[in-house]
Amino acid sequence: MAREVENNPHQAGEILASRGEKVIQQLSEAVRPDNAEGIHDLRVAIRRLRTAMQDLGPISDKKAGRKLNKELKAIADLAGKVRDHDVAIAVLERLASEAEAPQILLGINEMIAGRRSRRDTDHQALLTTLSPKSTEELAARIRKIAGFDEGVAMDPGLAAAVIGERCLAFLELVPSLYDPADTKRHHRLRIAAKRLRYSAELFDPLADDENSAPRLIAEMQDHLGDMHDCDVWIRTLSKNLKNYVKNAGEATPEFLAAEWLLGEFVRRRAKHYREALRLWMKWEQTGFIDSMLSTSADQSPETEIPESSTSGKVEG
Questions:
Q1: What are the pLDDT digits (tens) for 205-221?
Q2: d(CA 295, CA 182)
Q3: pLDDT (tens digit, 9 = 90+) per residue, 113-139?
Q4: What is residue 148's predicted lDDT score, i.e. its pLDDT?
Q5: CATH class, 1-83+117-154 region
Q6: How many other C-beta atoms are found inside a 10 Å radius of the C-beta of residue 265?
Q7: Distance (Å, rounded) from C-alpha 224 to C-alpha 218?
Q8: Taking a C-beta distance cutoff of 8 angstroms, is the pair 167, 296 a contact?
Q9: In which band, very low, low, confident or very high, does the pLDDT at 8 lie, cut at 50, 70 and 90?
Q10: Among the four 107, 181, 207, 271, which has the fewest Cβ within 10 Å?
Q11: Is 103 left (phi over 0), alpha (psi -120 to 50) or beta?
Q12: What is the torsional sign of CA 198, 200, 202, 205?
């Protein structure tokens, strides 16, 4: 899968520089008001740069690399808070169009207003961090790191070793798909899928192809991400409803909306879970993950495939 990339002796440095410039470009987009896509694109750009910094081998200036990685993570966390609000608002707006009871619709609109207010607060915190001066200094640090490693060649077998490690981490958590209630491990599986996808994307010269490994992994990541989003809503709504009842509160529009939304997210969560399980069953039938492991094992003698990585009889 990664032979073409490995055969280019300067690909590692070029990738690092290119991804650094993408982050710099997205910094200015993220500070624009009500630019939900700009926030999302900044998070993706940072994630891709951090993946490259980790997977392509040691940065020449290790101390500067660690400092930059920490700084990028802090920005991504702030952007993540804003992104969470954007996603929540979009979901609530879609569900509002399905609510028939006027009181429930009123309650959902109150929730949306509250989210917008919190979004403004968190976006302001991001703006403070990404002041013009701070952004200029960050851009200089990114370019300096990329400049140090611009001519660095990729180690032979690096792609195979990284992909093999990511595949095994994903496979270790796959059994959680056989327990619909194992939400914690489902969340960890989502993170493993995300890391596998971005590493595969880094090394696959055909990453943009419709049937490429990164595209297929992204589908699983989406299903698991939708499950996680529902899990967060279910926990939050359940906790709030219980507290409301405990304090003998009256049935306000927001309370009625929370009751209705809880049922909707439980239903949607089940749908996303079925989609994730069906996709995994398809991967088993096609040997998708096993093929990635076999490729990595062929290219890296140190990568070992467990005897029953993705298949085998079910034991009691």
A1: 666 677 789 999 999 99
A2: 31
A3: 999 999 999 999 999 999 999 999 999
A4: 60
A5: mainly alpha
A6: 22
A7: 10
A8: yes
A9: very low
A10: 181
A11: alpha
A12: negative
